[in-house]
């Protein structure tokens, strides 16, 4: 199977079910940004240490990356068509559970922090900002078409999850994000 199809050489692409749209279509922007977020998470994970103590962390992130892929599929499904995978309430609940678990181990935030710390932590902060953009793009799609409301909630919660994950990683690695300068 060839990796290139040449079908998009004139500036359009296929949604699921073969519906063709311009590459600047809001749905393409939204699912493409989810793909960027997924890649940014992959980069962050490549900086993570390995070992038994990180197994749960990697396991949760495997689920998160899979769910981001599913969100992309939902956003790439034309109106009136069935989606193969659907984000559900328990997906949001998993993020909340992990946020609460990791946050309980962190020092209380007393001020804003700047993205940084370890390479893994800084990369998770970057992934968080890409997820925020994906959320904005999905909301734009929702203005035009029906979007599973849990997709928006998941992306919103995912950015919170990534913020806490970045702090958690930095804390475990003995690094801290720089505080916001007061002036």
UniProtKB/TrEMBL annotation:
Compartment(s) where it occurs, according to its Swiss-Prot or TrEMBL record: Cytoplasm
The keyword Transferase belongs to this UniProt entry's keyword annotation: yes
Keyword Transferase set for record: yes
Root EC class: transferase
Cellular component aspect of the GO annotation: cytoplasm
Catalytic activity line of the entry: 2 cob(II)alamin + reduced [electron-transfer flavoprotein] + 2 ATP = 2 adenosylcob(III)alamin + 2 triphosphate + oxidized [electron-transfer flavoprotein] + 3 H(+); 2 cob(II)yrinate a,c diamide + reduced [electron-transfer flavoprotein] + 2 ATP = 2 adenosylcob(III)yrinate a,c-diamide + 2 triphosphate + oxidized [electron-transfer flavoprotein] + 3 H(+)
SUPFAM superfamilies noted in UniProt: Cobalamin adenosyltransferase-like
Chief location bin: cytoplasm
Biological processes, Gene Ontology terms: cobalamin biosynthetic process
MF GO annotations: ATP binding; corrinoid adenosyltransferase activity
Keyword annotations from UniProtKB, A to Z: ATP-binding, Cobalamin biosynthesis, Cytoplasm, Nucleotide-binding, Transferase
Pfam families: Cob_adeno_trans
Record pathway: Cofactor biosynthesis; adenosylcobalamin biosynthesis; adenosylcobalamin from cob(II)yrinate a,c-diamide: step 2/7
InterPro entries: CblAdoTrfase-like, CblAdoTrfase-like_sf, PduO-typ
Ranges where the Cobalamin adenosyltransferase-like domain occurs: 3-169
EC number: 2.5.1.17
Family affiliation: Belongs to the Cob(I)alamin adenosyltransferase family.
Protein name: Corrinoid adenosyltransferase
């Amino acid at each position: 199977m060839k990796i290139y199809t040449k079908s998009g050489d004139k500036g359009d692409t296929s949604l699921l079910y073969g519906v063709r749209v311009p590459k600047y279509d809001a749905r393409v922007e939204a699912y493409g940004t989810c793909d960027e977020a997924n890649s940014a998470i992959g980069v962050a994970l490549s900086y993570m240490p390995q070992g038994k103590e990180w197994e749960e962390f990697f396991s949760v992130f495997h689920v998160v990356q899979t769910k981001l892929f599913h969100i992309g599929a939902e956003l790439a499904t034309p109106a009136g068509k069935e989606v193969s995978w659907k984000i559900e309430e328990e997906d949001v609940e998993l993020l909340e559970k992990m946020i609460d678990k990791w946050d309980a181990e962190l020092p209380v935030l007393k001020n804003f922090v700047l993205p940084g710390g370890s390479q893994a932590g800084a990369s998770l902060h970057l992934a968080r900002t890409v997820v925020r953009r994906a959320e904005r793009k999905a909301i734009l799609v929702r203005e035009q078409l029906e979007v599973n409301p849990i997709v928006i909630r998941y992306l919103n919660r995912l950015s919170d999850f990534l913020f806490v994950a970045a702090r958690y990683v930095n804390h475990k690695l003995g690094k801290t994000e720089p505080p916001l300068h007061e002036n």
